[in-house]
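Case study.
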Amino acid sequence: MAEDVAFKHIEKTSLIGKRIKKPDAPAKAIGKTRYINDMVLPQMLYGKILHAGRPHAEIISIDTSEAEKLAGVHLVITAKDTPDLKLGFVKDNAPLKSKVLCERDEVAAVAAESEAIAAAAIKLIKVSYKDLPGVFSAKDGLKKDAPQIQENFPGNKSLKFKFKHGDLAEAEAGSDIILDHVFNVHYVTHCCMGTSCAIADFDHNGKLTIYSQTQYPYNYKMDLAPALGIDPGDIRVIQPTTGGSFGAKLDVYPYEPVAAILAQKTGRPVKVLFDREEEFINSPTRQPAAIHLRTGCTSDGILTFRSADVLMDNGAYTSWGPTVPVIMMRTVSGHYRVPVIDFKAQAVYSNNAYAGSFRGYGNVQMTYATAQHMDMFAEELSEKHGMDPIEFHLKNAQKSGEVTPQKSYLRECVLAECLTTAAAASDYVNKHKTYTEACTEEGRYKRGIGLASSIHNAGGAKIHKSDGCGTILKMDDYARVTVITGASEIGQGIDAVISQIVSEELGVPPEHVTLVNNDSDIGPWDVGVHASRTTFIAGNGAKRAAIKAKKQILAAASKQANVTAEELDLRGGYVVQDKDGAAVIRLDRMLRQMHFQPTPDVVMVSDYYEPNSELEGKDHISDHSAAYSHAVHIAEVVVDTYTGEVKVEKVTMAQDVGRVINRMGLEAQMEGGLAFGLGFALSEEMIFEEGRLLNPSFRDYKVPTAPEMPEIEMHFIESDCEEGPYGAKGIAELPTIVIAPAIANAVYNATGIRFLNPPMSPEKVARAIWEKKQADS
Amino acid sequence: MSEIERYIAPNQLDDALEALAGGPVTIVAGATDLTPQITGGKRVYKATLMNIQHIEGLNAVTKKDGKIRIGSLVTVSEIRGNPMLKKHGGILCQAANHFASEQIRNAATIGGNICNASPAGDMIIPFLVLGAAVELARWQDDRIETRSVPLDEFFTGPGRSVARDDELLTAVIFDVPPENSIGFFRKSGPRPALEISTVSIGIGGDFSDGTLKNVRVAFGAVGPTALRGKLTEAALEGKTLNQDVIQAAALAARQDVSPIDDIRATKWYRTHLIGVFTEELLNNVCQN
Ligand SMILES: Cc1cc2nc3c(=O)[nH]c(=O)nc-3n(C[C@H](O)[C@H](O)[C@H](O)COP(=O)(O)OP(=O)(O)OC[C@H]3O[C@@H](n4cnc5c(N)ncnc54)[C@H](O)[C@@H]3O)c2cc1C
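After joint prediction, the assembly is written out as follows.
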């Protein structure tokens, strides 16, 4: 036995639930990080796109001759140069357009020596348009004489969804209270700090390397290939550091194939980078929707049915936006125990902007409606029947083991604990009563408290044939670990989580774990960063790979130490005796001994983790996630009834997180997620007039600033998910989903007014209060 | 963006004025208005870009002979932290407190705020309430020629003023307010920081025994220029403040303004807010 281990004992400790520093945070904080936006390749040209700037028009002619003559311009392309190239979810979009269907439409593109030359060249392109009458709402798109937007979609009908369960007529007949409202959820956008960027580079064998901000590098190849007419196998995706995605990069958008086509034709790397105004106009939005929600309830406070009829403005092309009913219907059928469900959704083509996926994915929209209906019931039942509002929620809250009408299996369900914890911590019932009484009194400032909850998938969502993730783990002769994972890091913190998990299993410090995950030629497959899935799926993969490595090491060590592998453990950089922590050998030594022998035993393991969920399927009856989770937010607001300003003073949240892994990362996700929901609820709105965005700047599109962040009290409820890594569930979307209706319910508590159409901007609130005063007097 | 042929950064006022007299010059101070206007394509550079930040003598705040003089290069941050102004022109500090963010306040000059002539310029309102005049300088017959223009006669439209192309704004000057003077500023926008005013309002005057005299009222973002509220002033002048007077003033304020609908707010909301803020500020005066 080597001398340095004599008398050394290492206790068993755990990092799970501790605060782990995000490895890239210092560089980001001091401005040292090189984002894709900063990247320059040798010989690189700058690409710039000419956008139509009008919503619906025929292109009569394009004259590129002046632009081509400009010194420093290498190439100008139009739709003529890119025939038959298609992209998008239903292949209704193209890199460059021969007809204009929306303001952002890409009409021509330039590659030039500098950004300034490219911008100047764009201005020299002369396009003659014939403007056409447009469709600017889903309702108008359905009219008989509406202009036809997409040739292959008659009647402007895009995607359609349906789910029915139980007898609606019977349920309605058995209801004592039926609520019936239309909620109009508005346009918002992601506002990534790093604007959209792609750098494309072809080699002489026809292989494309694309530097991309994508969140889903592996399926991305499949989606990009038809937009270029090449084989997906000939695409290598490199993901440099990105300045945020939040769902905006979960599809291929035209600027990406445009960069690649320019690169292919010029033989030079080409970078396309949006400025902020381009970013606002040419990025996906959150899917807007008119949600006609009807909910029934008995006088005993038992929900009887929910029916939702959702009309969505598809915009001109189909990205992920109009697919959000997949999640909307899980909320309709799963947000509390609802026995009878009737869900319909229809997307309609228009000449408006089009939506992509966005943190909360349909659930932000739907919970804004369902959680307000729950509050309306609670109000009415308490007023008419003296029912305690929390009791009403608890009566309808599912318990572990329940299965929703869509067959979501709620294995570990702690909605009731979330409700009681948040209610007790915020003194909800008392405050709610006090503010209700004060609501009709004179006075400028009114306080309100509002409760909302929701359910969301927390173990991936199997909308692709595989929801899995590959992991390759190797250890070197110095006990440093490299984890090659399919999971992407887009700022959300999987880097810290994987280091932490591997460190937990292998007894090495988290700083000794290096993550390699930004090159599709190196990493194994993963479906992408979305659906709150990465800690759950990639975390499980990393854990399983680390356990394999550990087994291999302990098997080798057991031979040496003459004990069984089960009696050994890895702790603090040593192989130790499990029972008392007595050190056996330093881990790096052990690894070298394994390596340098006649039959080398090197630690290089791999794993492919596929969660035990079921494919979503056409009928939407499947256990599509490996876990589901709930959150409750209680918002406390002060409303200035004169100016309409709503100040959110405090939010008490209780969320089922399964198990806390990286506490610091978890808290940051709660805060960041809440900020998104806060902006959606109160201030953010894309204002369109006939398909044109009127406020494409941070001056007029109001993202919340630091002073608007409320005090946040977080309660993490640990339900210990059997399938999740160490019991963890996915967590990142619920904070965005639940806060807006909590605020709306609080504003109701303060003012007696329901806001069905967000955002609750000062003017809207002031106007509603003023109108109510006029009507009352 | 057109080409800048020449960049100059003179140290002396006469050099700067000579350059101005000599041809098309774009003046830049803190650049917080100019840069976004240029990059947004709303404005182009003239042949000469003149940075005025190095000109001596334009960055002082002084009190002398019953006048307070604030050099045009004084930044909003400097106003905010100036103890003498806190005492003698508190309304300026209030407006500075609600101005943009720390970084912008550090760069933004009062000369830039006034010369940009935005109807929503926040420092204009307190200066109007203080009855300030601006000092304009130009090069004439080989010497510096200055004139003084009352601020309420300075603006002619959005982005427009009576200042000539060859004139530089050198200072803002107002009488030291009497001991019993009061002044309140309020602006609105959906956010507490980094917000362009939806509307802004300032009210000031001499206040003793519950009575307001020499009242000045100014409104921002409710017309083509920042403006004085003449009807509101008349409703308040010499009156003992009580709820009836306050209500009458709030009504007059709504009649004083002629705002427009734009993407930031409707005419209705701006008018409504003017009434609300007039009432609020006058209640502040009562409680003072
Ligand atoms: C993020 C952001 C937030 C902002 N928030 C606010 C706010 O809350 N309230 C507000 O009022 N404004 C705000 N502004 C606008 C701006 O900061 C102010 O108007 C500022 O005072 C302008 O001063 P400057 O020194 O930067 O002017 P510059 O941009 O340097 O100049 C502005 C204009 O005045 C001219 N000029 C400057 N100095 C002189 C002079 N001495 N003589 C003649 N002409 C001159 C210039 O040629 C130019 O036309 C904001 C701007 C930004 C970018």
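Observations recorded in class. Chain A touches chain B through 23 residues (CB under 8 Å). The pocket of flavin-adenine dinucleotide is lined by residues B 26-34, 36, 52, 72, 99-100, 104, 107-109, 111-113, 115-116, 121-122, 168-169, 194 (CB under 6 Å). We will return to this complex in the next lecture.
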